Every structure is written in structure tokens, then in C-alpha cells.
């Protein structure tokens, strides 16, 4: 039996559990349940309408991140439903994929909620992948990397096809969710640390918490396929992955300089770029690959910013305490 290409597995039978780690991700996802309407946006609306609170740089940064994430979450959901789920034959892994698909829908709904609440033009936000070159480049990179897996005739038989499937998983789990999301996370949480757009910042915390689980599941999925199909993990394929990660880091840095060219108080685009280097090395380590950049985390506060087990005034906001997954590493 295997996590892919298992003719002995009936995907309709959840028991017995073959991969307990997949089941645990599903249970953690359920415990982390949230919806955007639970987050108050009153102060965000006041700050957005005021001409004295947010600078033009900050407004641009907020709009660009809403624009990038609104499209990226949809691309990721489509990949899960149309490609990954179809080729995973293990039922408990499929169960988590269904949960992840639901969470991607919640994330997309978050950006609808933000647009509606702030009175933004949805056409402007949801079409930024067409109008902003650095957003288009990131989306196109992942789509081009993974589009062969969407071929209805594609199967995961044989070394080359399994490598193509793993390349798809790396494209969405490691590059899109694990690298392309993180400069944006840092930007939005940097604003929240300064008391600006707290509601959007809190929703980005929730999204980051979900994405950390998605990333961890994706890496465990990739590593399981590697273990069960060791022939795919040859030097040429490892070198290809290192090159893809290097290219993705360059694209994310370009976006960071583009979205925040003037920096924020105490934070500049160079630090965002260093953070992308640090994050990429962490992703490579998770796949058993060597670091490329060797950069320390320039934003140690990111770990604190995403620790949602905190006490809050009940009359000011909801308590954002999760039941499980407290040992996750955020950066």
C-alpha cells in the first residue's frame, strides 16, 4: 500500500488508518475553525476612512496584499480539488485535503469580507494578478510549474510522472504557501504591531496559522512519497528543486520591493528580502535539502505575532485561542 498508486486502497473506507499524521492534521484543522465575520473590522473602517492614520505606502501595501492573496488562495484551492485529491489514493490524506479546501474557501471569503467592509472595488482587488506585474509573475510561475498535472490523462505511474506530481506539490505547498505568502504575512503583521488595520492583521494571523498546517502536511506528504518511491529523489531532481526555490525567492523579493518600496517604520524592503531567504532555507530543510542562503530570521517577532493563545478583553474582541497545534513553528 502507498499514499499514491495504491490499487489495494479503497478510498471510500477511512479505516484502518495507515498514516496517523494525516489524521492528526485533519483534527488540528477542525480545532482551528474560524470564519472572517468573527473578527471586528470597526477600527479598520475608521482608519481606512481617515486621511491621517495610513500613509499612501501603507494603503498601497494593504491593497496589493489583498490582491495577491485573493488570487493565490483560489489557485491553491483549484489545485487541491482538481489535481492533488485526484492522485492521492489514501483516504485519511484525502480527508485532510477536503478540510484544506474548505479553509482555502474561508480565506477567499476573508478577502470578500475585507472588500465589502472597507468599500473597496472588488474588480481592482481580484484582478491584480492581471494588472500588477510582480503578482502576475508569482502566479504564472506556479501555474506553469504545475499545469501538466491538470492534464486529464496524467497518471502517477513511473518515476518521471511521480516527479511531475511531486513538483506540483512543491509548487503549491512549498513555493506558493511556504514562500510566496510570507513576505505578505510579515508586511500585514508589521502594520498590526503598529496598531494599524488590526482586524485585517488578526485575519492574516488566522490565515497564517492555517497555512502553517497546510505547509506541514504538504511537506509530510512529499516526504512520504519520497520514502515510498526513493528512485525519484535523484541528484538531478534535487538540483532542480533547489533551482526552483532560488527562482521563487527572487520573485518574492521582487514583489516585496514592489509592494513596499519605501518601507515602514523600522522595517525596510531589505529586511523583507532577508526574511524570504530565511523562510526558503527552512522549507528546504523540511524536505531534507541543504540551505541556500544561511540567513538568520530578521523578524523574530513573527513567532510571537502568530501565537494566538493570548488573553484579550472579552468586550473588545473574541478570544483567539486554538485548541491544538501549539507546538507549530511559525517562521
Task: Give a structural overview.
The protein is mainly α and 331 residues long. The protein has one domain (41-305): Ribonucleotide Reductase, subunit A, CATH 1.10.620.20. The chain is 65% helix and 0% strand. It is built from 13 helices and no strands. The radius of gyration is 20 Å and the shape is globular.
Summarize the structure.
The chain is mainly α. Helix content is 65%, strand content 0%.
What are the main properties of this structure?
single chain, about 325 residues, mainly alpha, Ribonucleotide Reductase, subunit A, 13 helices, disordered C terminus
What is the count of DSSP helices, taking H or I runs of 4+ residues? 13
Number of distinct beta strands: 0
Order of helices and strands: HHHHHHHHHHHHH
CATH topology: Ribonucleotide Reductase, subunit A
Give me the secondary-structure topology.
Elements: H1 20-31, H2 42-49, H3 56-87, H4 91-118, H5 122-126, H6 128-131, H7 133-146, H8 159-180, H9 182-193, H10 198-228, H11 235-259, H12 269-286, H13 301-305
Helix pairs in contact: 1-4, 1-10, 3-4, 3-8, 3-9, 4-10, 7-8, 7-11, 8-10, 8-11, 8-12, 9-10, 9-12, 11-12
Amino acid at each position: 500500500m502507498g499514499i499514491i498508486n495504491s490499487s489495494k486502497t479503497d478510498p471510500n473506507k477511512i479505516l484502518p488508518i495507515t498514516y496517523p499524521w494525516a489524521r492528526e492534521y485533519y483534527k488540528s484543522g477542525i480545532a482551528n475553525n474560524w470564519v472572517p465575520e468573527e473578527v471586528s473590522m470597526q477600527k479598520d473602517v475608521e482608519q481606512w476612512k481617515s486621511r491621517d492614520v495610513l500613509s499612501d505606502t501603507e494603503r498601497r501595501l494593504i491593497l496589493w496584499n489583498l490582491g495577491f492573496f485573493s488570487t493565490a488562495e483560489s489557485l491553491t484551492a483549484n489545485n487541491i480539488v482538481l489535481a492533488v485529491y485526484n492522485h492521492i489514493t489514501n483516504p485519511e490524506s484525502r480527508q485532510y485535503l477536503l478540510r484544506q479546501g474548505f479553509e482555502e474557501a474561508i480565506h477567499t471569503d476573508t478577502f470578500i469580507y475585507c472588500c465589502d467592509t472597507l468599500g473597496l472595488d472588488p474588480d481592482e482587488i481580484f484582478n491584480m494578478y492581471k494588472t500588477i506585474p510582480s503578482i502576475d509573475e508569482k502566479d504564472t510561475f506556479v501555474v506553469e510549474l504545475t499545469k501538466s498535472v491538470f492534464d486529464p490523462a496524467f497518471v502517477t505511474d513511473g518515476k518521471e510522472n511521480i516527479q511531475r506530481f511531486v513538483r506540483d506539490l512543491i509548487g503549491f505547498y512549498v513555493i506558493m504557501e511556504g514562500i510566496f505568502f510570507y513576505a505578505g504575512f510579515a508586511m500585514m503583521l508589521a502594520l498590526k504591531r503598529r496598531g494599524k488595520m488590526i482586524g485585517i492583521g488578526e485575519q492574516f494571523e488566522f490565515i497564517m496559522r492555517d497555512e502553517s498546517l497546510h505547509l506541514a502536511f504538504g511537506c509530510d506528504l512529499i516526504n512520504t512519497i519520497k520514502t515510498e518511491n526513493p528512485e525519484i529523489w535523484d541528484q538531478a531532481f534535487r538540483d532542480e528543486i533547489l533551482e526552483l526555490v532560488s527562482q521563487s525567492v527572487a520573485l518574492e523579493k521582487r514583489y516585496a520591493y514592489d509592494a513596499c518600496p519605501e518601507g515602514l517604520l523600522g522595517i525596510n524592503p531589505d529586511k523583507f528580502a532577508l526574511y524570504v531567504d530565511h523562510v526558503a532555507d527552512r522549507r528546504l530543510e523540511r524536505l531534507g535539502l541543504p540551505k541556500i542562503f544561511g540567513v538568520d530570521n530578521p523578524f523574530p517577532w513573527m513567532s510571537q505575532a502568530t501565537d494566538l493563545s493570548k488573553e484579550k478583553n472579552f468586550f473588545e474582541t473574541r478570544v483567539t485561542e486554538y485548541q491544538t497545534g501549539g507546538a507549530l513553528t511559525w517562521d
